[in-house]
Write a structure and sequence with these properties.
CATH architecture: Sandwich
Oligomer: single chain
Largest sheet: 4 strands, antiparallel
Shape: globular
Helix content: under 10%
Number of helices: 0
Number of domains: 1
Number of strands: 8
Radius of gyration: 14 Å
Strand order of the largest sheet: 1-8-3-6
CATH class: Mainly Beta
Strand content: over 45%
Length: 103
Amino acid sequence: MVLQLVPYQAKSVTVGTSEVELMVDKTNTGRMVMVITNTSTVGLQSVSLGIGHVAVLGVGVTLYPGQSWVESAGAGFEVTPARITAIASAAGATIAVYERAVS
C-alpha cells in the first residue's frame, strides 16, 4: 500500500468564549503534521485546546499570543488524529491552523 499525502490545509479561525472546532477527527486518515498558533494581536487573549474532548479555558494546552502547538511525525511524534476544539479568554482571538494528512 502506498500512502498518499493529502494536500495541506491552512486556515485562520476566530475563537471566542464558546467552543469552536479547529480540526475534524482524522482517525481514518491520520495526520502527519499539525501546527496551531495563537495569532491574536489585541490584548492577552489566551486560547485553550480540547484534544479529543471539550475545550475548557485554562485546562490542558493553553496558548498565549505568539505561542504554537506543534506535532509532527517527522519529529518522532505520533500526531493525534482526534478532533481538536478551542475556547478563548475573550472574543475575537485568532488562531492559525495548518495540517497535513495521509490517506
